[in-house]
Amino acid sequence: MKKFLKSLVEKNRGISELGNVANYIPGLEKSNKHALGLCIIKTNGTIYSIGDYDVKFTIQSVSKPITLMLAILDHGEEHVFSKVGMEPTGDAFNSIQKLETCKSHKPFNPMINAGAIATSALIKGADNQERFDRLLNFFRKISENETLEINNDVYLGEKRTGNKNRAMAYFMKGEGYIDGEAEDALEVYFKQCSIEVTAKDLTKIGLFLARGGVMSNGERVVSERIAKIAKTLMITCGMYDGSGEFALRVGIPSKSGVGGGIMSVVPGKMGIGVFSPALDEKGNPIAGEALLEDLSDELSLSIF
Ligand code: DON
Q: Which of 113, 149, 188, 237 has the most CB atoms at less than 10 Å from its CB?
């Protein structure tokens, strides 16, 4: 199996040539365009780690379903979905268009930037420090990695340059979808995006969801229902305006990030983590998507 997975990684590494690393957040341009890493952990504990699986990168949008789960734990499903919708947009991840043009002005889903900022605003805590500490501890728990930390340079870089996100946060504040201060929501959001992980950490989170919200020691952290919400939004919106095509090509609930990460969940079977920093024009890891397509075909992993 390991040899077979290695051949799939090597086959797809060259596809990175067709993409580009993100450079709109200072620091991300330093990634090695040709890196490709894969980690798989089955629910029986078998682990396969190939290529650049232990290279650190910032989690970026892969953080979104995780923050969503803690927001639901903090407030319940009904309240969270009164602030953010459940529908795909068909627009780019950072688009402001539907916020302004749709009548409700409610962010469409928690996987796009607008909806994720509204979700970050829901994390409970006396102040921003406590809010982010609770969130970081939740990431550490479900990745089973107590050492997770933020990359401070990437955090400060995004805080300095994230003006489109800032515009959306203030707009949503004006429409009543953010209860606290817009800047507080942004601080939690920028910090969560700059948490450093490896493909292996993402695999552990995928495995947690594959087990329906249960850690490998058997501890239940979120209900089946909350895990189902995260996985459903991943399959419908997790790859942004590429989600429909990805559902057909791969058919595995997945969430991408512009740092090059993809966290994938084969329910009941395995968690998969990919590191592939060269992105396609939609901001999804280009070689990682092709690798997951091969993996899905070869091992019949599509949920459809
Ligand atoms: O807000 C942003 O633009 C980034 N922190 C996260 C975007 C992202 O990862 C989109 N993913 N493909």
A: 237
